[in-house]
Write a structure and sequence with these properties.
The protein has about 220 residues and is of the alpha/beta class. It has helices at about 5-15, 65-80, 130-135, 155-175, 200-205, and strands at about 35-40, 45, 55-60, 90, 100-105, 125-130, 145-150. The longest helix has 20 residues, at about 155-175.
Amino acid sequence: MSGNRVLMGLLVLLAACETTGQAPLRSCTGCYYDFADTAPPNTALVFSWPTHRLPVRFYADPRGAMPSLVPLAIASWRGQFLYGEWSGVEVPDSTMADVIVTWASTGGVPPDVPPDPGPPVDACAGETSDPVTVFRDSAGTQLHIVLTPRAGFTDAQVAACLERVVIHEFGHALGLLRESDSTTDIMYEAPVVSAPSVRDRNTAEILYHTPATVTPR
């Protein structure tokens, strides 16, 4: 893991520790966003990992920067929960995993380089399998997160984008099924921030204090 990624992970955890003094708020205007999906006729679909399935097990593609991206994302989200409502751990075998994180079959594997410190650019993409489709509508037992570098950008720009997008996709995998409408949140459709915001944290905490209607098999 590069020094920059280690430092970023520590800063994420420090920021989380400094802001964990209050319980999740549901009555505050604008301090969280919708996390549930809907199905006809307006049925709320709420997914979260139950306590007995924690820590969620992640398998990281061993190529390129993935072995450093996955622990960064785990630490970023674990630090958002006041009482350990969610946690994750890496596993060495994909057959043991709840979530498999891989590179797309197209786009290649980008080199593991320090991220570009400049303005964020849309140099990569990510996709997470829908927990509702996998666990409710099929016999699936694993989620998949796929990261794709985009052509036309420097390796450093791709690296910076991947650090944002992997945290975003992990948010979907832990149950934030909807996108945020604010650019200040990591769950914005095309994230431009490098870590979960206070609003992301409030939303995740509220999710994990809401009864789930969809759970993993």
